[in-house]
């Protein structure tokens, strides 16, 4: 046999020339087009090598092969298992490129990833349990702020709260809300000996006065630049209480007309951060969920513990009915059963006749049942006492007084 004829030629037969097509050149690079044959030009159709067929798998998956190449690839896939597996993977990948679903990331993805990471690998210096709600809510709000555009920082936000018996409101912007949070968080900062965002000098103590002072001191409306100092301040607060030890939890934080221990002050700041985060989310049309159930329960518990003193203050101002029973060591006085349902729910007995007394199930004269998030909206001043309660039973005056006291916990 003549070796020059190739492996496929037999003696007496014409040799078969096998050609592997090279890479296709661009039309501009072709010096001369093939000459036309009678009936039109047709490309030669020799068999393809394994290497060439493998290189065509990507184009085949994208349906970009010619009819001849497609037939050759598919015939090859029936006899070559590795190429068949690769072809399936490429075809699946192409299917992902043509999905009808949205390619936008879930806006809650960041918070879920952070929650999962912290659950699997706790911080080396753990955050105290009483500071965890503040840590979580500032992180959630910061995730929202990172996702909004420059123009949305100027979106109008209307803050609502109760003064006396009526709901009032104040219009600001997203950036203005963050400035408000930073100003009031400064109360905690100064109690810990940290820098005050209002600077040195004679600084107001009332949360409302601090906010008005910060807003008035700005030479122009606040912009997204306020996010960095607010977030740095929240990080510093969490880091400071984490290193400070147990005794710091009882440090007093003044709020003007009253004071809270540090563990309650940070819980109150977490509550306001969530509520105003919801205000911002509504203004920019962003999904925003309530806090974790355990954190929400702690927030409700704080409000329930503040209600007896708040009720007594309203009674002195003539905004609530008089006490009906003398509270003594053997007679604790009347109680209202506050039944909070849903996430973060539980049962609380609110003392009606003395802020120093503890509520007792044995002396319950009224009961109110409502959802946990709805109760928090009442405490935040976002709904009126008439709108909030889902179920009421018993002394109508006691119910009205407690619900009104809950609404009066709100402020700017």
Automatic annotation (TrEMBL):
Where does the record locate the signal sequence feature? none
State the UniProt keywords alphabetically: Transcription, Transcription regulation
Q: Could you tell me which Gene3D superfamilies the record lists for this protein?
A: Anti-sigma factor, zinc-finger domain, dinb family like domain
User: Which InterPro entries does the UniProt entry name for this protein?
Assistant: Anti_sigma_zinc_sf (IPR041916), DinB/YfiT-like (IPR034660), Znf_put (IPR027383)
UniProt biased composition (Basic and acidic residues): 7-35
Q: Where is this region: Disordered?
A: 1-46, 198-218
Residue ranges crossing the lipid bilayer per the database entry? none
Q: Give the Putative zinc-finger domain ranges.
A: 54-84
Instruction: Specify the superkingdom.
Output: Bacteria
Q: What is this protein called?
A: Zf-HC2 domain-containing protein
Give the species this sequence originates from: Streptomyces argenteolus
């Amino acid at each position: 046999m003549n070796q020059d004829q190739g492996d496929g030629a037999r003696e007496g037969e014409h040799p078969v020339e096998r050609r592997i097509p090279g890479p296709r050149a661009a039309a501009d690079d072709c010096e001369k087009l093939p000459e036309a044959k009678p009936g039109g030009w047709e490309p030669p159709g020799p068999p393809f090598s394994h290497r060439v067929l493998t290189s065509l798998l990507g184009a085949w998956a994208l349906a970009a092969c010619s009819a001849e190449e497609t037939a050759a690839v598919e015939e090859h896939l029936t006899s070559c298992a590795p190429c068949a597996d690769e072809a399936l993977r490429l075809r699946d990948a192409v299917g992902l490129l043509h999905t009808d679903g949205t390619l936008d990331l879930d806006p809650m993805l960041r918070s879920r990833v952070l929650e999962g990471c912290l659950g699997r690998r706790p911080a080396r210096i753990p955050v105290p349990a009483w500071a965890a709600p503040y840590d979580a809510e500032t992180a959630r709000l910061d995730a929202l702020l990172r996702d909004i555009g420059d123009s949305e920082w100027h979106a109008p936000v209307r803050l609502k709260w109760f003064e006396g018996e009526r709901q009032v409101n104040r219009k600001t912007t997203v950036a203005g809300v963050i400035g408000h949070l930073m100003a009031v968080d400064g109360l905690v900062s100064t109690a810990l000996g940290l820098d005050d965002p209002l600077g040195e000098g004679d600084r107001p103590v009332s949360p409302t006065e601090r906010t008005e002072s910060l807003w008035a001191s700005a030479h122009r409306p606040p912009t997204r630049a306020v996010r960095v100092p607010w977030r740095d301040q929240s990080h510093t607060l969490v880091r400071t209480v984490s290193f400070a030890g147990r005794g710091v939890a009882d440090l007093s934080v003044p709020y003007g007309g009253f004071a809270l221990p540090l563990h309650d002050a940070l819980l109150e700041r977490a509550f306001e951060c969530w509520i105003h985060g919801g205000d911002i989310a509504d203004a920019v049309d962003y999904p925003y969920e309530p806090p974790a159930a355990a954190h929400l329960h702690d927030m409700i518990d704080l409000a329930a513990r503040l209600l007896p003193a708040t009720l007594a203050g309203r009674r002195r101002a003539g905004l609530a009915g008089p006490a009906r029973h003398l509270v003594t060591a053997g007679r604790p006085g009347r109680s209202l059963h506050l039944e909070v349902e849903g996430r973060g729910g539980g049962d609380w007995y609110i003392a009606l006749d003395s802020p120093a007394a503890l509520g007792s199930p044995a002396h319950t004269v009224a009961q109110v049942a409502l959802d946990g998030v709805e109760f928090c909206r009442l405490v935040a001043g976002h709904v009126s006492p008439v709108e909030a309660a889902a179920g009421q039973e018993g002394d109508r005056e006691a119910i009205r007084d407690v619900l009104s006291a809950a609404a009066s916990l709100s402020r700017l």
